[in-house]
Queue: 4 jobs
Job 1
Amino acid sequence: MRIIELQNLDDPGLDVYARLTEAQLRSRVEPARGVFIAESPKVIASALDAGLQPVSLLMERRWIEGGARGLLARCGDIPVYTGERALLAQLTGYTLTRGVLCAMRRPAPRTPEEVCAGTRRVAVLEDIADSTNVGAIIRSAAALGVDAVLLSPGCCDPLCRRAVRVSMGTVFALPWARLGETAAGWPGAGLDRLRAMGFATAALALRDDSLPIDAPALRAAPRLAMLLGTEGDGLRPETVAACDYTARIPMHRGVDSLNVAAAAAVAFWELTR
């Protein structure tokens, strides 16, 4: 490993940690050059387990001979930027309590057909913008037996820093892909691809004509895609209208709905059993 003791924050190697936007990190123009940031030893270890390539590490000095020793042994000859806590705290967004960041190469994009091969239950996220919700949904999907996650073109990047952190690294273990890259590809073309793969589609929406989430027809579907919509507005009306089923989670005490991440966990538990 190459330990680089920081005396100031001018080193260009620190750009990925503080001076590049999420869009710049993704490097859509040159996807092969894209990176993402993983936080905490546990999440970084999960990324390494998935075969992802580390580019550099940033950590407080005390972690080098402490909790990050195992990571350093796995990362090979990459730069390890370190310094005193007061200096690193000056980096924009460096508010960690777990002390370790790792810049990693983004994995090659996969197609929906690739990630859905052999699957029975998939989650489809439409335009969910909040990275915390995306990370939480992916974690629930991994924990509760969903086989893959698909995202509309307008959905938050699952490899943005917060989504990775909230997912607790499950984003590296659960297959995911985008259903198209432009807004024109959703919902029409995206739903057509799901049907071509043999999926029945169930929109989670609050409608009077919807089925309860434990309806036998939903459980009996050989392949089922569960669609969840953006915060606040939910799924688009045209998306709901185009789905095979509309499903609802019964509410009590005048509550009209759940947060999308909570609703996803309930639906996954019910429909993957």
Note: Residues 32 and 108 are 7 Å apart (CA to CA).
Job 2
Amino acid sequence: MMKRALTLLAVVCLALTATACVYRSNREYYERAQLYLGNGDFETAAELFSQLGEYEDAADYALYANALAAVAEEEYALARADLTQLGDFKSAGRYLRYLDALEKEEAGELAAALEIYESLGSFCGSVADAKRLRTEIPERSIREARTLMAKGEYEAARDLLLALDGYGQSRLLADNCTDMMNKAAYAKANALCESGDHLAAMEAFLALGEALDAPARAEQCRAALFMRLNEALEQVTLNTAAELIAAYEAINDPRAAEQAAALNGRYGVNLALVRAADSHPYVLLGEYPVGESGAESALLWRVIALEGAEATLLCETVIDAAPVATITDLCLTEEESAAVLSATLPAAADLASLSDLTCAATPYALAQGVGQENGLALYWLRDSLESGVHPVVSGSGALVIPADECIPGVRPMLTISLEEIVFTAGTGTAADPFR
């Protein structure tokens, strides 16, 4: 019995001894693998960790060591796959960011790579990488700028160089770009001048500032342009006045400003009338008895047509009564008389642009017995029928034959030359007519 007990004890002791040996062997392998990993022998470390199987975190270390070996061999895709599996194990996250920086650099995104390197501090040589890129980035910009300069793209090259804030030869090269740009711009300005486009040439020389002799050339262009405009001034018409005024103003010169002001005084209101013609603005012109007692007053007209510088005016009121279709004499100044090309009664075709043909009569016309309908006067048209009878516009705006006992009114129409008369005031409204 005692012999059997001793035998069992011996077996237990052997088992415990074997377990202790295995434990010491795994620990030694683990510590040896850690040593190889710390010394940068990632392949040996990975092999040792992999032999440990599931011992402690040996499996994670084996994957980690393989990932670092892949980084060393520049097998970045494999390294990223291994590190991604490790999550927050050891420095897996930092290595993934380091891989991001490497890939950014490989793709030419140096600024982005530099930002990552700097964020990693001294990890995995990031300090040296950041220092290298801080030199490489401006050097690459200088190389790119030189390439652009060789292609003649000086503005783009200068932008790159100025962004370097004086690094290396960047300032000198940027000045060279400016010189070449100025010479090219000067040549274009000179070509414009030789082609006779003095305004564009002047503006181009002015844009060059003090470069070369640009200020003197700009003044030469200004003088030539002023002389040419003065020649055009001798032949100015209403149709050319607006363009000539704008040309004088564009010179930005006191003498030219005086000429523009004089032209505005002569043509400014007339040009406003032309611009407003489609809205049938109002005009004051001539005089005629208006009050019941026969007192004369200025007549109000509407512009109903404009062709070139010739405006057709229709009196806003019926000014007199007439048993036959005839025009009455108006009281006009000498200037107004010189501007009137024709004075007549309107035809139906002349009134086509108006939406309302009806018209009131002056107190004077009513006193002369002009016929009315619904408080509105009947007035003659110059059209005539085959019978020789002239129709009239009724109080409802219809064209009718006048009754025998009716005395229609006179609503005159004038055609005037805007070249021969100067309107100096007014905005064209009924309350503030051109005059």
Note: Confidence is low (pLDDT under 50) at residues 1-21.
Job 3
Amino acid sequence: MLSFLTILPVGNASLETVAKHMYLFPLVGIVLGLLVGAAGFGLSIFIEPLVVGLIVTAFLVILTGIHHTDGLSDFADGLMANGTKEKKLAAMKDVSTGSAGTMAIVLYVAGLIVAFSMTDGYDLFLAILLGETMAKFSMVLMAAMSSSASQGSSIPFVQIMRDRKRLLVSGFITLPLLVLLGGAAGLAVFGAGIAVTMLLGAISTRNFGGITGDVLGAANELVRLASVVVFVAV
């Protein structure tokens, strides 16, 4: 899972193997959150908040191989394409980035930098840890609650997550961590993450007839942003 969701050199696994263990994605979120959160905590002691926000955002994007950020870009391009579901799917699969995708990335990155800059120290550490854990759970939830829009990378994840017991295990990993460490703010992060995930699922079903790998990536990014914003606002 680490090799699929990050650039960490921990070996490679097939897509089917990763899908089989998708319900453990929040554990990867915890690992990422601890790494990036610790870095953010240390940097915030010496560096201005806005600069810390920029560094932390870059660290997250690079550490995850820009994989999900690219999914957000493709998702935006697909949404903004005119025409049938087939045309929207084609726009999403186009390797070139359109204006909608570019704008989505600019707004996302700017929003994340500002959100991170609104806190520091241990609170910044928590914002990163809880946000990353919730972002990974959002992909599990979306796969469990949606169908695939086309033949692609989302199919094995959707098929595996038809087993609702896996979703429950993933939830039991995520929710206690958010509540124990974040209290009311952690619970708010969980609720916001669920809401954003369900909204994205509904939008994707209406526009594409289901979800794709790009939609899963977009969910990771947007739920991360929503989680951090909610945490610093509560």
Note: The chain has eleven helices and no strands.
Job 4
Amino acid sequence: MAKLESSMRNMVVCLALVTLLASALLCGTYALTKTTIDTATQKDKETAIKNVLPNKEAKLGKAERVSLEGYKDDFVIYPATLDGELVGAAVETYDNNAYGGKIKIMVGLTQDGTISDYSILETAETPGLGMKAEEWFRDKGDIRGKNPATTKFATTKDGGDIDAITASTITSRAFLTAVQKAYESFMKYQNK
């Protein structure tokens, strides 16, 4: 095989070919894995809804979208009924101000807004610090059984009633804000 002359034209052509090949491989991999990833994400969401609901025998209703002022994306309410009466809901909530960006949570609420449970759906927090949120707010800063109507869902450092994750105040603030927004969107849903 003959060696190409080292010229600007040849270098640009080679770089363009390598870039085109890499782009094609990335697009192909994305196309092949997108359906699998979407299916897994949906399954995780369905599992989270079942796990956070206040009453496991409750029947899930049609998902409803609720918008709150100052938030670009809607909050999704999955109402739960038992014998035709609303017993609570699972609320897909988020906050964009976590240390790693967006944190997305599924929060279970009873009819009066008391937190029954939660599950983190998506986060990019620092391993070992912000990633502790899943356990922290069940153990040391337990939010289950608390109602944002009577408990200030902010860190004690910010004058609230909930202990922040040690060395991870930004994540704690974002997590608690997302839970507060779940409560507010559920109350708005009930009052419409």
Note: The radius of gyration is 23 Å.
